[in-house]
């Protein structure tokens, strides 16, 4: 009997909205930093098979529960083991980097993986003040917020827009014949939304950690948008934190890791993500419980049906073009299953051929 060929899958690419992944490479009490990075590669392969649109990795520093400190390195590794995903930064924390360095690194990535790289830029340093100083002390290190200056410098390198007398006029980010990947500005309030609309860039709202209502910034971005050569139409991504499981009860059990981790972080105690068993054994103070209630207002937890019932009106209210989900839980297999269920909920249904 002839051996049957390996199954191939086609994917229904008309979902509720394009669905994407934001991955922070979570370190837990049961794994190591290297294992967290390998888990990211494993999750990216799954997301690629499931038909997710993008896979973004974050930049954080000096955080024991996050292994993702070098997004450009991880982007190259993830793009190399996937085929269809767009892979990008969610984001490059521009205050930590010289704009020329950012231009060069992302042009290299675009040259290696043409049409598959995104450049997401953030205003925050992604860390505490002391670590931020350690990252920047060999740069000009201004006391104030210089994001806009750095962003304009990055655009000037790409557009060859420095004045004739400017010393950077003769500096060309290499490879010169590769464009910068599409730019997205990341934000958790209205400022980045307005700037993204003004320069004709994509915009991603960080609802997963922001206390700010996403509706105003996202609608304002769309209404104020000025078309650019790179992006004629606006594109707004809603980033959410979701924990999805086969039942509401199982999702709630998994989410206890998020609860305890959040309460500890808000009180200045940083550490790897605890297990649900550790969370169950923890004695919560009234202030702990208040913090958990605060975070649960933006954390989506439940079965597929419950999560979708929560997300659909939020998507409609924000007019999001795309939804990006982060899931920071203890168990890697449960994390993968959460994304599988979300793929089903958004209509990324596998078709075997």
Write up this protein.
42% of the residues lie in helices and 16% in strands. It has twelve helices and twelve strands. It has helices at 33-50, 71-80, 99-112, 129-136, 147-159, 191-199, 215-224, 248-266, 276-281, 286-296, 304-318, 332-345; strands at 9-11, 19-23, 54-57, 86-89, 92-93, 117-122, 183-187, 202-206, 236-245, 299-303, 322-326, 350-352. The strands form two sheets. An eight-stranded parallel beta barrel has the order 2-3-4-6-7-8-9-11, surrounded by eight helices. The protein has a two-stranded antiparallel ribbon with strand order 1-12. α1 (33-50) packs parallel to α12, α6 packs parallel to α7 and α8 packs across α10 (286-296). The longest helix has 19 residues, at 248-266. Mean pLDDT is 90; it is low at 1-14.
Question: Portion of residues in helices?
Answer: 40-55%
- The N- to C-terminal Cα distance equals 20 Å
Low-confidence stretches: 1-14
Radius of gyration: 21 Å
